[in-house]
Write a structure and sequence with these properties.
The protein has about 160 residues and is mainly alpha-helical. It is about 55% helix and about 10% strand. It contains 9 helices and 3 strands; from the N terminus they run H-H-H-E-H-H-E-E-H-H-H-H. A 3-stranded antiparallel β-sheet has the order 1-3-2, sandwiched between helices. A hairpin with a 6-residue loop joins strand 2 and strand 3. Helix 1 runs antiparallel to helix 2 and helix 2 packs across helix 6. The protein is globular and about 35 Å long. The two termini are about 25 Å apart.
Length: about 160
Amino acid sequence: MKALADIAGQSLIGRRAATGRGDRRTFDRPILLAVLADIEAFAEAPIDSPNTYVVSMQVSGVPYQPNQWFGPLTMAERKACSRAAKRLESEGLVERVTQRGRNRVTHLRPTAAGICSALETAEPQADRAAIVDGLRRMNWAGHLIPHVGDHRNLDHYLDSGRSV
C-alpha cells in the first residue's frame, strides 16, 4: 500500500525536476496513482464503524485531496491539479464528482480505462488483491473489479466502442 502512494509522489517529484516547475501534465499521472493508492488503502479501513471518510468512499468515490496526496501545494499547483482532474475526465480516465450546484470537485471515481492506466504505471507495486477488496467495499465501483485482474484487455473495450 505504501509503495503505491510513494510511486505517485515520486512521479510528481520527477516531473517537477525534469521540467523545472512542471509542465501542463505534471499532475495527471500522479493523481491517477493517488486515487488507486487510496482504493488500495481502503481495503484495510474499518467499515463497521462508519465515519465521514468511510461513507464518502463508499458512496461518492475517492476524496479529492491533492494536499494530502502530494503535501503542501502552492495556489498555482492546486489549480494545476484541478485542471489535471478535468483532463483526466475528458480522457475518460476518471469521473469527477462535484458539489451540487458548483463545479468544485469533491471526489474522483476512476473508470475502467483509468484503473487499467494506473495499473500499467504502478506495476509491480500495486497490490491487486487489496485494490479488488477496496473496490468491493464501494457501492459505485463493482463494475471495475474485472479490470483489475486483466487490465491488458483495455484495447478490446476501446476498439468495441463500449463505455469504459
